[in-house]
Amino acid sequence: MSGKILIVEDELKLAELLGDYLRQGGFEPLHVADGLDAVPTVRDEKPDLVLLDLMLPGKDGMDICKEVRSFSSVPIIMITARVEEIDRLLGLELGADDYICKPYSPREVVARVKAVLRRSGAAAIQDQGLTLDEARYSATLRGVSLDLTAVEFKLLQILVASPGRIFSRSQLMDRIYPDERIVNDRTIDSHIKKLRKKIAASAPGEELIHSVYSVGYKYEVE
User: Fold this and answer.
1) Cα angle 84, 63, 193; round to 5
2) Strand, coil or helix: what is 173?
3) pLDDT grade for 123, boundaries at 50, 70 and 90
4) Using one digit for the tens of pLDDT, what is the confidence trace for 183-214?
5) SS (HEC) of 180-212
6) Is beta strand 28-32 parallel, antiparallel or unpaired with respect to 4-8?
7) Domain layout of the chain by residue ranges
């Protein structure tokens, strides 16, 4: 496996260590230490994945993640020494793909990078005018971009892959958050609500995601 990995980390020794391990894993690491340089580097270098520290000089990792998600679906793994659950949830709500807490093993980081890239490298799914391209985390409906966050994309992908199948909230949470981080039913409901709004904005009157009372959700074209 190969690819360009952007490390956004202000601790130089830690960034160098991660870079060494990533090179050994076959990747091409890039590094910026100031949060203000992160977004321009994503735009210019178009990395395959971003390792984004939360606490940075210049601009906070949360703000960087939100800004990157406004124009790119590049996979983002957030790294932080904060362990409060609210930070994890905020990071994921903004579109992060994974979360690693310090201290960590560089080997674990490389393994997570490979896992996220594998998930993001599948072929496109096409169904009834809806196209999902996992390599780019992009979704279009009738040729119109849905501008989904990474979590919304994954949620739609799971549903579209099994048309008509009803997924409970717990099943969707297990698939979206395989590391068993703590989330609740309202998190899934919130993502579904936002997803429906984006579908409705791109294709008025088109209802693709259906609620099944007291059970969960399904994808079905009526």
Assistant:
1) 75
2) helix
3) very low
4) 666 888 999 999 999 999 888 888 889 999 88
5) CCCCCHHHHHHHHHHHHHHHHHHCCCCCCEEEE
6) parallel
7) 4-119, 125-219
Architecture in CATH of 125-219: Orthogonal Bundle (1.10)
Which amino acid does the sequence have at 206?
A: E
What CATH superfamily classification does 4-119 receive?
Answer: Response regulator (3.40.50.2300)
CA angle 5, 58, 93 (to 5 degrees): 60
Confidence (pTM): 0.56
Residue 52: which H helix or E strand, with range?
strand 49-53
DSSP string, 56-77: -SSS-HHHHHHHHHTT----EE
Q: What gap in Å lies between CA 112 and CA 107, rounded to an integer?
A: 9
